[in-house]
Amino acid sequence: VAPCGSNTASLAGWWLVAASGARQLPRPSLSLHPSQGIEVGSNVTLWCHLPRPAAWVRLCQERNVTPCMEKLKVRDVAVFSLVVTKWVHTGVYRCRYRAPEGAETSELSDPVELMVTGEGAGD
């Protein structure tokens, strides 16, 4: 599964879109529930809110080698659940989507930071 992209890839992608004259899709928004007080072992949900339907939605953790999570054929919200949160889930997340028609992808959402706290076997 392809990564959401670093700032460099994002800038390169923007340049390619601008140079080709293609229109980039509007940015989705990402929210975290609960928004704070996330302890090791608790459940967390990330919601990627879309301005339009999507063929797929990807949620990626920045600077992580684990694959992005993906949902297919989403109307307005893609819900990603992290069950039994661990320390490795701490980080910055972003989402993006692709339109059902065409190959263009959206800009990355603004970043959302997930901070896992507490004690336990958080590996």
From TrEMBL:
Transmembrane segments annotated in the record for this chain: none
Pfam families: Ig_2
InterPro entries: Ig-like_dom_sf, Ig-like_fold, Ig-like_Receptors_ImmuneReg
Keyword tags: Disulfide bond, Immunoglobulin domain, Signal
GO biological process, one term: immune response-regulating signaling pathway
Identification of the protein by name: LIRA1 protein
Organism field: Odontophorus gujanensis (marbled wood quail)
Annotated gene: Lilra1
